[in-house]
Amino acid sequence: MSSIKIRTKRLDGNTQIRTLISHPMEHGRNKDKVTNKLIPAHYIQVLTVTHNGKTIATCNMGAGISKDPYFAFLLKGGNPGDAIVINWVDNLGNKDSEKHTIT
Amino acid sequence: MKVNRRKFLKTTIAFSAAGIALLESTLAKAEWLAAYFAPGPFDATMKQLLKGKPIVETDKIDLNIPEIAENGALVPVTVTSSIKDIQSIAIVVEQNPVPLVIQAQLMPELEPFMSARLKIANTSFVFALVETEKVCYSVKKKVKVTIGGCGG
Questions:
Q1: B interface mutation test: which of A38, A58, A86, A90 has the most B CBs within 10 A?
Q2: Which fold has domain B34-145?
Q3: Could you tell me if the ipTM is greater than 0.90?
Q4: Mind listing the domains of chain A with CATH numbers?
């Protein structure tokens, strides 16, 4: 199952894109309560949003984003049937991608 | 057809080289700005972000963030702006070990709007920077964190 959830909503002629990603977003300074060892850093570094194949947003982020990150963007216009694709890459090289069609 | 060892080696090397080239091009596309996210003092991060552009305080940016955050690990923030032709929106937390939280390059297809959730380690000023071609607009707000924001 994909780690990305995408919702879109029409707002006054614009389209709001909301996304929720399930990811631990560990910054590497937390300790494991059982073993008392540092939990290694594991966080998303780059998130890209494309609209009909064109990149509309590139977000570079650090571990200062909360666990299970949520983002919202507002697309000018946008028509039903347009494809929104969201990709992320984390510091361990994991990646995921999800496609959504505006309704 | 007889495939000798020499030929086999040649083709495998050629294919793997092509594969590496392909991998590198996709990596380059999503290149992370590692230097920006190095743990360091707030001033150094700001300097890198501004790239020599003057910083202007403005009221044209709306930074919507709670004044008192009960849980520093999850602080919702929304940045909206009426500034035209923006290039990027960045959110910087002064007291965090890594001050820069997110830098989003927004294309003209998007409205100057962004919403996210941050971790804030201590009571601190939160800055929203909106970058245009010539200047950086900024707005700041103080956020009080009542319990530690270090939790994941």
A1: A58
A2: Immunoglobulin-like (2.60.40)
A3: no
A4: 4-101 (2.60.40.10)
